[in-house]
Amino acid sequence: MFNLFKNKNIKGDLKIDEIKSRLHELKSPIDGKDIISSGLVSSILFKNGDVKIILEADQNDIPKIEPLTDAIIKTLSSINGVEKVSPILTAHSINNGQSPVGSPNQERKKPNIESIRPDNISKIIAIASAKGGVGKSTIAFNLAQSLAKRGKKVGLLDADIYGPSLPTLLGHTTKIAQASENGKIDPIEAHGLKAMSMGFVVNQGQALIWRGPMLLKALTQLFMGTNWGALDYLVVDMPPGTGDVQISLAQQARLDGVIIVSTPQEMALADVRRGIDMFQKAKVSVLGLIENMSVLIDENSGAEIDLFGKGGAKKAAAELGINYLGEVNFYPSLQKASDNGQVAPNSATKQFDEIANRIDI
Question: Is 285 among the domain residues?
Fold first, then answer.
């Protein structure tokens, strides 16, 4: 069990040990043990009188667990300093990795790999690059907007736990997601998207010093513990790298495809090739490659300034035998819009819309 907030006290007298002590009084309907010892309590989140209890169980056991939420609220609400108690139910497995009969995702499920793919989501597309600093988050946000403008219901998940960028892109850097009556977290809605990020759970600027297993558990909660509703697309902004987290996400989220982002220079493309190889070995369809920051546009004169060697990603896509989806230029106005939580300028929007139209999925 881990805590997303490490504060010792909530409004004076309330201590995390007191929360745990009270939870020890409640019994699990699955094995009869107290809900802490049984492992039912996955996480305890607390801040400023607001207590969130993450309950993790097999999907088939969720109906048995649901009555516990009222007992948790009643038990913890009596603690001095508690203003709100929000039990959040998450499912950690679905029939040993198989979809329920009749699920639209059934053909994508593979046995013996735990699924964290939410229900009612038609397609999950990852935006990835093994290289950091290539503008992947900006691409993910603006492609999600392009899909939404086509009348699609779109969610955007920031899977970069260490460096969440989505709150800045949405203009909600101080907003904290709230739990709803069904025990899940409501996504932040902005710019026509449903969005979730660790940046909506912890304070801005708070460092998370977690190892792999804790990261995967947190990502599972973001996937399964969010009220996504019915979506045509869930766009996932992947963390950089090619390690356990990236491989586990590719397999457990049952990705329908991945779009790779790179800047044109060889230093970035060398890492990108490794990322493409990783996804191919994980049996994830590589939908194509985008060249970001292709050229710098002087928006006063219209002049193009070649910063990184335009065309490098297009050449690499041809060499690797994958689709080239197009380029996005470096517009100073796009940089300002991203920093200020605003929509992209029309000049950049056209490029994002063209790329969205080329996505074959």
Answer: yes
Q: Which regions of 58-150 does DSSP assign to beta strands (E)? A: 84-91, 121-128
Of the candidates 315, 260, 322, 308, which has an alpha carbon nearest to the alpha carbon of residue 129? Answer: 260
- 219: domain range? 121-358
Identify which has the larger pLDDT, 281 or 112.
281
pTM score above 0.90: no
Least confident among 28-32, 45-49, 269-273: 45-49
Whether 312 contacts 261, CB under 8 Å? no
d(CA 255, CA 251): 7
Residues 160 and 81 reside in one and the same domain: no
The CATH number of residue 303's host domain is: 3.40.50.300
Helix/strand/coil percent split, the chain, to 5 = 35, 25, 40
Question: Strand 324-330 relative to strand 9-10: parallel, antiparallel, unpaired?
Answer: unpaired
Q: Are residues 56 and 189 in the same domain?
A: no
